[in-house]
Amino acid sequence: MFIHILNLKKSYQSGVVTTEVLKGIEMKLEKGGIGVILGPSGSGKSTLMNIIGGIDRGDSGSVVVDGIEVNQLDDNKLTTYRREQIGFVFQFYNLVPSLTVSENIEVVSHISHSPLNMDEVLEAVGIKDKKHRFPRELSGGEQQRVSIARAIIKNPKLLLCDEPTGALDYSTSRSILQLLQQVNEKYGTTILMITHNTAIAAMADRVFKLRSGEIVAESVNQIPVPAERIEW
Ligand SMILES: Nc1ncnc2c1ncn2[C@@H]1O[C@H](COP(=O)(O)OP(=O)(O)OP(=O)(O)O)[C@@H](O)[C@H]1O
Questions:
Q1: pLDDT at res. 202
Q2: Nearest-angstrom CA–CA distance, 121 and 199
Q3: What ipTM describes this predicted complex?
Q4: What is the pLDDT of residue 90?
Q5: What is the arithmetic mean of pLDDT over 171-183?
């Protein structure tokens, strides 16, 4: 199992108040799979994803990603894990405004262990002809393509996407979902995606419904739907 989480708990302390955000999460996702996490605002989706990606730490329980017990890594090893194994895509693209498209991607490829070829990645995400532009000269969908290119150039084992289409219109959202499916197929990258949009769950191999820090339902799609056929 590529991702295997057992009894993961996480609380946040603010003043004297302790909030239990994750209450014993159990989750499995196979290598090369696409997982979707659904759930209302505040249910713990981002917290869970941040722990899987090594941005945050769980309080207890086990989080194994490709054989690595993430919760047990010291700070240096956690940084290396995050840098070398994980790609992140967020709702807002977080591109550096003063750098061109290719420079934004190069920043990551320079610190990567075995980066993919820049032109191949630009081609794969469909922005090769825009590599000398600045982010302000791109549409939202194009900026998200750059952020996906930046995430995959380091050839991550796992791509974590937090509301990747949250800021995009309908047709652009669909094209970004198609792109994520293509990345999954072309590079075999395991993808875990948070969304509010239940229709998107159709493209996943596994769907996890989170409510108040617990997985309340889990389903398996034997035949995931191609993103271009998803409607909402
Ligand atoms: N660093 C933090 N310190 C204190 N509380 C936090 C922190 N991060 C998250 N929380 C709290 O944990 C709960 C879960 O937050 P989380 O962001 O994981 O939810 P979510 O399901 O991703 O929500 P959304 O869909 O709105 O992004 C919320 O009540 C939030 O206020």
A1: 95
A2: 28
A3: 0.95
A4: 94
A5: 91
Beta-carbon-side half-sphere exposure of residue 170 (alpha carbons within 13 Å): 5
Of 86, 92, 211, give the one whose Cα is nearest residue 153.
Answer: 86
pTM: 0.94
Domain borders along the chain are 3-229
What separation in Å is there between the alpha carbon of 208 and the centre of ligand 1? 17
Ligand 1, residues 10, 14, 19: which to mutate, most atoms within 8 A of Cβ?
A: 19
Please check whether residue 213 is in contact with residue 44, taking contact to mean a CB–CB distance below 8 angstroms: yes
Mean pLDDT of 188-214: 96
Residue 114: which pLDDT band, with cuts at 50, 70 and 90? confident
Q: Which amino acid is at 142?
A: E
For domain 3-229, give the CATH number.
Answer: 3.40.50.300
Q: How far apart are CA 33 and CA 26, in angstroms?
A: 17
Atom of ligand 1 nearest to the CA of 48: 18
Task: Give the per-residue pLDDT at 2.
Answer: 97
Q: How far is the centre of ligand 1, averaged over its atoms, from the C-alpha of 120 (Å)? A: 37
Spell out which residues line ligand 1, taking CB within 6 angstroms. 12, 14, 19, 21, 39, 41-47
Asked if 145 and 133 count as a contact pair (C-beta separation under 8 A), the reply is no
Tokens 């948070």 belong to residue? 194
